[in-house]
Amino acid sequence: MRGHLCTASRVDTECETDSDSETMRCISCKEYYSRCDAGTCKECYEEASDTEEELKREIEDLKAKVAFLRFWSPLDLHITHRSPAGPCFTDVVLIASSDDGLIGTPSVPVPAHKAVLVSRSPVFKAMLENEMEESRSGTIKISDVSYDALRSFVNYLYTAEACLDEQMACDLLVLAEKYEVKHLKAYCEKFLVSKLNWDNSVMSYAFAHQHNAKHMLETALSLITDNMDKLTKRKEYIELVEEDPRLVVEIYEAYLSKQVNTAAHKDSSSMKP
Amino acid sequence: MRGHLCTASRVDTECETDSDSETMRCISCKEYYSRCDAGTCKECYEEASDTEEELKREIEDLKAKVAFLRFWSPLDLHITHRSPAGPCFTDVVLIASSDDGLIGTPSVPVPAHKAVLVSRSPVFKAMLENEMEESRSGTIKISDVSYDALRSFVNYLYTAEACLDEQMACDLLVLAEKYEVKHLKAYCEKFLVSKLNWDNSVMSYAFAHQHNAKHMLETALSLITDNMDKLTKRKEYIELVEEDPRLVVEIYEAYLSKQVNTAAHKDSSSMKP
User: Fold this and answer.
1) Where is the BTB domain positioned along the sequence (chains A, B) (predicted)?
2) Residue A86 belongs to what domain range?
3) Is there a domain that residue A12 lies in?
């Protein structure tokens, strides 16, 4: 909160600004400010207010459009309808299958529409339009995924919405990468970047590398190279050296390049008086 | 453009504002202004800029969501694909039919997905989920509509987009009303309201009445009651008296109520000194 800066007062009925000769009253926050803290003129304030209103209207319009285009997921309908395949007109099912094919109960099929899958994923498009096995049988097997993740994945294709925790975001990012659903991949990556910290940075770095998540990779790498002194003691680091030493090399290369840049910056700064 | 108001100058290195004692420089438009034209303080300007940035980011996110949820219309696919019913997985066709059933060439069927129709319109939902004739035959006849309007209607259900002129907006509003597609109805109504003028006001009023377009009705009515002196000479007015005199009564009632309100307002104003 800005304090009152009035030191003297003078009556000035023409202006709506405060009558003190050195302070004015902000149209927006109604606080007094001195000339040093002056922001905009009235005209620009009014323009900015109009712009804000316009942007808010545009947001409302877009939200209505999203609500209209958002599909009822056959999974929602599941709850309210009698039979999964009947009134939803689904024409394909997806089944989560683990590679071992031994452990666990058989997965519940997730019903869907070919038209929706084809519309959201170039991989499903190629699969279903080219009379492959999946198109003929009406069954798509998705390996190495839990039923919950598959269900969320299909739901996202209909609604552009998902309820994420870190595990689910990783699972969905993997599926999004595999089926080329860019919008979902960006959504998961954004979530994971927001959850990045020193504790999960090495794991996240490796994960981002494996699944081609560029923004997450850069953020994790930057976190790691800022804490190099602590790195080599970490369990995840030792494991990474074992499992994928090339990724460790990339960390050192990034660190080196950062040091060189910082040194160059310092040099050029010290050249100036 | 605001002119320079400088009258004297004083060096004031602490402030970023112009050093003249009576003028400041607007952070936004970089013009000089006097205390009378002061808008916001710097803090509020910065907050407003941040808000604008945030709103713009939200708009970008929503646009990406719309692009993701927007369906490929089977009509778009028509152009790029070999057969309409094949790779699009459409399971229903809509046919424009005129009631007389005699004039004109038979309409080209418009292919669609039951799942999309059901998702966008409660009327299609009831029709297709309840094993009615349309569901069994996979053919929905739409009466009193041109092929072009039907095509645009179906396209809108997939994309939330339509290319409007006044005729098309009227045709689509009628279809939207009939099939309870609220989003499309609002879209057409907004367009038609933007095109309202004295020349089309009586027609628009009657149209809005017939199709329950409340906002359009009010705007047209307000236009008409503002021009009552010219109303009775209009051809459309004379026709409306013939065809639907109750609508004409409503015009007079609205006019009367406006007069009463204006008089009451004048009275209460004249009471004050």
Assistant:
1) 90-166
2) 70-161
3) no
**What angle (nearest 5°) sits at the alpha carbon of residue B130, between those of residues B127 and B133?**
65
B2 min Cα distance to partner chain A (Å) = 10
Within a domain: A115:
yes
Separation CA B8–CA B19 (nearest Å): 9
Q: What is the pLDDT of residues A150-165, one digit of tens each?
A: 999 999 999 999 999 9
Q: Mutate which of B22, B47, B89 to test chain A, going by most A C-beta atoms within 10 A?
A: B89
Q: What is the ipTM of this complex?
A: 0.79
Place of tokens 């602490």: B14
Least CB-CB distance to A115: which of B38, B69, B89?
B89
H-helix segments, B91-131:
114-120, 122-129
Over the stretch B121-161, which tens digit does the pLDDT of each residue have? 999 999 998 877 777 888 999 998 999 999 999 999 999 99
| Domain assignment of residue A114, yes or no | yes
Contact B41 A31 (CB under 8 A): yes
Both structure tokens of B207: 């149209």
Least confident of A11-15, A216-220, B72-76: A11-15
Among the partner-chain residues A2, A116, A183, the one whose CB lies closest to the CB of B64 is: A183
**A contacts of B138 (beta carbons < 8 Å):** none
pLDDT exceeds 70 at position B97: yes
H-type alpha helices, A160-198: 166-178, 182-194
Distance CA B130, CA B138 (A): 13
In a domain, residue B89? The reply is yes
CA nearest to B31 within chain A: A41
What is the domain-level CATH number for residue B145? 3.30.710.10
pLDDT bracket for residue B36 (50, 70, 90): confident
Task: Examine the fold and report which residue of A110, A134, A161 is the final residue of a domain before the chain moves on.
Answer: A161
How many distinct structural domains can be found in chain A?
Answer: 2
Q: Do A75 and A156 share a domain, yes or no?
A: yes
Give the one of B38, B45, B48 whose C-beta lies nearest to A42's C-beta.
B38
- Distance CA(A204)–CA(A222), nearest Å, equals 12
